[in-house]
């Protein structure tokens, strides 16, 4: 049976005028890039320069959509549970046959379905940008898959914050603080001292690439600080570096990224992106379970003592 929370929330959202307005405003952004690419091609023709400009526009468009998704997704779910508490309707939901997990999943899937619709609304215009050349369609589709995973993870953060607080404002602020901590705090290994093992491998080894080639993928991945696999921004960078061959200098200029350059090359940028997506989905599952536990009504210890008496 369809989740009643999902059905009710989705019906209520799709009946408002704000829904088509948000989708239209979001789609205008890639439309502007698509028109710019078409104008560039009409002026300079299908040349190497036009293809390079098209790749640059694709990178800017993907990065911009990434930041929009990360900023919008937590706000979409930060009021899902706390809003029910403010309206004093959460207790009514809990006394029905709808369990806490169904409530959490219904709220999450409704918000995520709308986010996925918003993200996918920019796909036709992105494909128009690719018409100039320089990139293939399957790369753009994989980028959108990565954005959908990031949207799901950010929505789970907002849901988790919403399950902890009674006020939507407090839940929203907490959600964005968590997002900021994940985005900035997980990059600290790039700016702090590297491990002794990694430093000895890079500084005292004249042929690092050959040494890494003789190691297994598991051992190579273990050389990276595990916290780096949590950062979605770094996953986006490795995704774009794998697809375009650009942004390498931008990444390597960050702190101690020099020590991780050979590791990423041996591991491959795409593998790092896959691991990053898997970690985000795994942490999202943990946040969903914790949210369901936070929504579940707590037993009153005073009542339990009275029953014993």
Describe this protein's structure:
By secondary structure, this protein is mainly alpha-helical. It has 2 domains: 4-189 and 284-296; 194-269, no CATH class. 77% of the residues lie in helices and 0% in strands. It has 17 helices and no strands. The protein has helices at 4-14, 18-44, 48-77, 82-86, 90-94, 100-120, 123-130, 137-164, 168-185, 196-203, 208-213, 217-223, 232-244, 248-252, 257-267, 269-295, 301-308. The protein is flat, with a radius of gyration of 23 Å. The model is unreliable at 300-309 (pLDDT under 50).
What string, H for helix and E for strand, traces the elements in order? Answer: HHHHHHHHHHHHHHHHH
* Total separate domains: 2
- Level of helix content? over 70%
What is the overall number of helices?
Answer: 17
Distance between the termini: 42 Å
For the largest beta-sheet, the strand count, sense and barrel status come to:
none
Average pLDDT rating: 80
Low-confidence runs of at least 5 consecutive residues: 300-309
Q: In percent terms, what proportion of residues is strand?
A: under 5%
List keywords for this structure.
309 residues, single chain, mainly alpha, disordered C terminus, 2 domains
Give me the secondary-structure topology.
Elements: H1 4-14, H2 18-44, H3 48-77, H4 82-86, H5 90-94, H6 100-120, H7 123-130, H8 137-164, H9 168-185, H10 196-203, H11 208-213, H12 217-223, H13 232-244, H14 248-252, H15 257-267, H16 269-295, H17 301-308
């Amino acid at each position: 049976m369809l989740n009643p929370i999902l059905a009710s929330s989705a019906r209520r959202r799709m009946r408002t005028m704000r829904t088509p307005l948000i989708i239209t405003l979001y789609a205008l952004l890639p439309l502007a890039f698509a028109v710019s690419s078409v104008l560039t091609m009409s002026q300079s023709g299908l040349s190497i320069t036009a293809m390079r400009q098209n790749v640059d526009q694709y990178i800017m468009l993907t990065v911009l959509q990434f930041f929009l998704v990360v900023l919008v997704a937590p706000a979409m779910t930060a009021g899902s549970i706390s809003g029910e508490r403010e309206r004093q309707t959460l207790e009514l939901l809990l006394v029905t046959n709808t369990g806490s997990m169904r409530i959490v999943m219904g709220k999450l899937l409704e918000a995520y379905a709308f986010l996925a619709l918003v993200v996918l609304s920019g796909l036709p215009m992105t494909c128009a940008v690719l018409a100039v050349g320089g990139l293939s369609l399957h790369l753009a589709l994989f980028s959108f898959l990565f954005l959908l995973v990031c949207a799901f993870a950010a929505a789970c953060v907002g849901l988790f914050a919403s399950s902890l607080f009674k006020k939507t404002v407090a839940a929203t602020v907490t959600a964005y603080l968590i997002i900021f901590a994940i985005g900035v705090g997980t990059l600290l290994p790039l700016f702090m001292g590297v491990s002794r093992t990694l430093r000895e491998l890079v500084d005292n080894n004249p042929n690092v690439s050959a040494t890494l080639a003789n190691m297994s993928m598991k051992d190579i991945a273990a050389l990276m600080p595990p916290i780096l696999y949590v950062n979605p921004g770094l996953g986006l960078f490795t995704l774009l570096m794998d697809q375009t061959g650009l942004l390498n200098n931008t990444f390597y200029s960050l702190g101690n990224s020099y020590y991780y350059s050979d590791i990423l090359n041996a591991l491959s940028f795409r593998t790092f992106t896959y691991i990053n997506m898997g970690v985000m989905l795994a942490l999202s599952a943990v946040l969903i379970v914790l949210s369901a536990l936070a929504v579940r009504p707590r037993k009153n210890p005073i009542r339990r003592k009275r029953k014993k008496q």
